[in-house]
Specification:
Length: about 150
């Protein structure tokens, strides 16, 4: 169900804080957007990008930053739903990365689950993905011939 305006605003604030911290390469500010639970989870776009726990999440973003001169995530159209102390998000995102001197812009997707805790709304699970290359519009699978 669509989140009430106050919950949507609070959840969007956490997402914005995450995006700014990622862009600014501020791991301390990024960490506080996540719950400190042992099973907090981030799936990234790479085959090896499954991070469980804050230490793995931190190692992953540090790797991103070490392999790029600049990297940012910009949120686009975003849907926020909630029930009780849980909210879930689906958002179009844009990844802007400069690596090896080359700038790349990639359309992506984000889904996330947040939980309201005493300290506010916190990310519990996120999943970033990129649309499949080689999959034509109207086809259900990459490489398919319509």
């Amino acid at each position: 169900m669509k989140a009430p305006a106050d919950i949507e605003s609070a959840v969007r604030s956490v997402l914005d804080q995450f995006a700014v911290a990622y862009t600014d390469r501020d791991v301390s500010r990024l960490r506080v957007t996540f719950a400190a639970d042992a099973d907090v989870l981030v799936y990234g776009t790479g085959a090896d990008e499954k991070c469980v726990g804050l230490a793995e999440i931190e190692r992953h973003v540090m790797r991103d930053w070490a392999q790029s001169e600049k990297a940012s995530i910009t949120l686009g159209r975003t849907s926020v739903s909630s029930a009780g102390a849980v909210a879930w998000v689906a958002s179009d995102v844009t990844f802007n990365v400069t690596a090896g001197g080359s700038a790349v812009t990639m359309p992506g997707r984000l889904t996330a689950v947040l939980e309201r805790r005493a300290e506010g709304w916190l990310l519990i699970q996120t999943h970033f993905s990129l649309p499949a290359t080689g999959q034509s519009e109207g086809d259900s699978f990459p490489g398919q011939k319509s």
